[in-house]
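ESCALATION

Customer reports they have been waiting on this structure for their group meeting. Please prioritize. Original submission:
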Amino acid sequence: MIVDDHAFIRRGVQSILNSAPGWELCGEAENGIAAVRLAGDLKPDVIIMDVSMPQLNGLEATRIIHEAQPDVKIVLLTLHDSVEVLRSGFHAGAQGYLLKSEAEEELLQALHAVTEERTYISPKVDADVAKAVRGEFAAHD
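Update from on-call: job pushed to the front of the queue and completed.
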């Protein structure tokens, strides 16, 4: 499932998924409220979630979805190269953090990682920061 308030981002992600065998798009939402409702209806395996959206942001939607469906894997897709957003996202229940600037190259790697029960943090995030956040996340499991 894809969640982003910009249709062109949703179309871009859909294009990447369509070109990769083994991935099927089951739905899309344009804000966090719709994402929560749709996730409850569709029970997707993976959600690609924008962070900054109107009405209900991606971090809060991630928290709500993760509480209701802890087996759903959530990859945050964001413009924000921010330690605070990364940390908040993982604490909300996300397993992946991908910058929009590298989505085309890294999206499938992120999806494979989270479906294999691994975390994924964008390679552009400082390695020490990524290691620290992974450590915090593991401590909460």
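Sent to customer with the following note: The chain has a mean pLDDT of 92.
Escalation resolved.
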